[in-house]
Every structure is written in C-alpha cells, then in structure tokens.
Amino acid sequence: MYTVVGPMKSRAMRVLWMLEELGEPYAHVPAAPRSDEAKTYNPSGKVPALMDGDDLLTDSMAILTYLADKHGRLTAPAGTIARARQDALTFWLIDEFDAVLWAAAKHSFVLPEEHRLPAVKASLKAEFSTSAAKLSQRLEGEFLMGDHFSLPDILACHCLNWAVGAGFPRVDEKLFAYGKSLRARPAFQAAAAR
Ligand SMILES: N[C@@H](CCC(=O)N[C@@H](CS)C(=O)NCC(=O)O)C(=O)O
Question: Is the pLDDT of residue 92 over 90?
Fold first, then answer.
C-alpha cells in the first residue's frame, strides 16, 4: 500500500496524478512542507514523500520513475535508447522549468526574507518563456514522447500549471492546448479533487 505525503498544491500532485494513472490504491497525507507531520515521514520536511510499505522514497521524479518501472507503465523500459531520450527530456524539464519556478518561489516566500532578491524574477520569467518556446517547438504529437502519455508529460504539465499560479508569462497556444488536454485526463481530475 502506498502513502503519498504532501498537499495537492505541491510537487506531491505529480505523485497523486501518477498513482491515479496507474489505478493503484493509496492513502494521502496532505502534510504541508516543513510541517511536523511531514517530518514524521521525511526528516528533511520536504514533500512529496512516498511510503511504499515501510520504505520511504523522496523526490517527485525519482518516485515517478520508481512507480513507472515497478508497474511497467508510462515509461520506456530502462536500458533502452527510448528511455535515455525520455530521461534526457525529464532532466531538461527539471533544469529549465522546475528549477526556474523553484528559484522564483525561493525568492518569493521560501528563503528567509533577508536572502530574497525579488528582482531576479524578471530574469527567471524571461528564461522560462524561452524554454517554453523550445518545448512547444519540439512537441509534435499529442504527447512529448510522441503518441503515448509518459512521465515527462506529468512533469511538464505540472510545471505549466505552476507557472500560471506563479504569474509567469502565458505560453503559446500550442503549449497551452497541450496542457489543457492533459488536465482533462480523468486521472488528473481525480488527483486535483484531493
Ligand atoms: N526535487 C524535489 C523538490 C522537493 C521540494 O522542494 N518540495 C517543496 C514543496 S513542492 C518543499 O518541500 N519545500 C520545503 C523546503 O524546501 O524546505 C522533488 O521534486 O520532490
């Protein structure tokens, strides 16, 4: 039995969405980041965390990769060229989307006030727009890896939603439509209803 730790409005959403896609049962503990409750699972207080029985797993994309490999779904098999390309895209999204959004969050409310540099946000927004245009350009079919939904789609869509919430510039129509179609998936809707 899986237990997902972290609120829907955090990177825990990626894990909730993944488990809904897999149709795997799970419990949800919507503990806030850094809360005492989150620390009872993950001593760092970071979310998401996933308990698989007694085993603690951390980091959203490590968790998603573990689940995809374990259940043999939503990923190319490990050790294949297709997987190397899928992983390259995942790491690119972490560098160009997640890290940029996280830097903006740090300089908005995460870091102690004396370490925040709000002026950096304009630069981060410009960087994000450049990366979003690149992603839009490489999007050829319905999904990032072609005709099948896979892990990078969960990461990309979560970051696109995060960007809207953080007041980042609008992405182009093609990428907007891509995000919209992913949000319409029953598994996304079920996770978002948490
Ligand atoms: N790379 C990690 C980042 C986890 C992370 O920083 N989560 C945020 C909430 S979305 C958090 O726990 N922040 C609290 C903190 O940084 O102390 C992942 O993808 O899970």
Answer: yes
Question: Residue 49 in contact with residue 57, Cβ under 8 Å?
Answer: yes
In a domain, 106, yes or no: yes
191 lies in some domain: no
Rg of the chain over all Cα atoms, to the nearest angstrom = 17
If you measure from the C-alpha of residue 18 to the centroid of ligand 1, how many angstroms do you get, rounded to a whole number?
A: 17
Domain boundaries, position 177 = 81-185
Is there an atom of ligand 1 within 6 Å of 60 CB? yes
Q: Is 47 in the pocket of ligand 1 (CB under 6 A)?
A: yes
Are residues 103 and 124 in contact, defined by beta-carbon separation less than 8 angstroms?
yes
Q: How confident is the model over 129-148, as pLDDT tens digits?
A: 999 999 999 999 999 999 99
Q: Is the CB of 8 within 6 Å of ligand 1? A: no
How confident is the model over 54-83, as pLDDT tens digits?
A: 999 999 999 999 999 999 999 999 999 999
Nearest CA to ligand 1 atom 11: 46
Within a domain: 150: yes
